[in-house]
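Lab notebook page, bench 4
Experiment: in silico fold of construct C2
Operator: M.H.
Input chain length: 373 residues
Purpose: comparison with the prior construct
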Amino acid sequence: MDAYRREPAMKPLPSSPTTSPYASEDSRWAAVQARDAAADGHFVYAVKTTGVYARPSASARLPRRENVVFFATAAEAEAAGYRPSRRASADRSMAEARRSALIAEACRLMDTAETPPRLDALAASAGLSPFHFHRQFKAETGLTPRAYAQAARARKLRAGLASPASDSVTQAIYAAGFNSSSRFYDQAEALLGMRPLEYRDGGRQAEIRFAIGQCSLGAILVAQSQRGLCAILLGDDPELLAHQLQDRFPKARLIGGDSGFERLVAEVVGFVEQPALGLRLPLDVQGTAFQHRVWQALQQIPPGSTASYAEIAARIGAPKAVRAVARACASNMLAIAIPCHRVVRHDGQLSGYRWGVERKQALLTREAQTREE
């Protein structure tokens, strides 16, 4: 009875092309009676006594005609107060699981292939057209197949350079699937953040200047490579911050900052205390292709504003990659400069923050006050 009270006045069905075999209610009801799979996608039917809707071919018990109302889409049915049937939800979950399995297999092929597979070959192995494979792959992983293949090749390269079994940089280059060393060296610093020999030696020849100071949020470590700021770390224990930097660059030459470097640290601290000042220093941002996309999206959130993990996932074209977005935020080594503190849960509540939720709240409060001034 309650379902009858919630049922809105019946509206005429949206006009359909006269060529559609399901343009009338009679033809739609006939399709439901016949459980016609060809009608799926043309409309859904809802049952007033149960409050659920289903596709025409659903195998649920056939309802009485007087209890049935038709909608052009599932979204319209849900807007009218109906929910999907359990069977429809199960079918949707199975379809999503099959799609995830196909994409996972494509990722495995790219991870293990000697050279990056072509798009048409990956699509054929998944039984899809290149267009549909490309779209589903990006929806599932947040990356295009090309970007994923590049990231997989970069992982192989880093593993090869770090492996004791690798006799030379050249051997690691070809093992990672690069066709020529010249092509690799064009991308080397973007992939590794330093020259290949430096990376192979754990950053042995890289020089990183750093200094540890104090700000209103506690201890702050600022480090700079030849390319720009490579770390801004916050914490309570200065010694722990130094260990974190050393773990990130285990064989780099870490040099304590001189008076000139301390002026740079002061600029970073000033930005922490007064976000309106902005930070106009070059950054040495090292991460995967996906992490770069997330971090770029974070830098577009204005001070004093926030965005949810789901909103960031949608902005980078990967609405299902919410957990991956959260992992990218947790991997950020440049506190404040890449403002992962501006990302909140979908309900607006604060969630985990690498440097403590209290610091996250303090930063957001300070930015909000600055915005109001």
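Observations: The first helix runs from residue 2 to 6. Confidence is low (pLDDT under 50) at residues 1-18.
Next step: discuss at group meeting.
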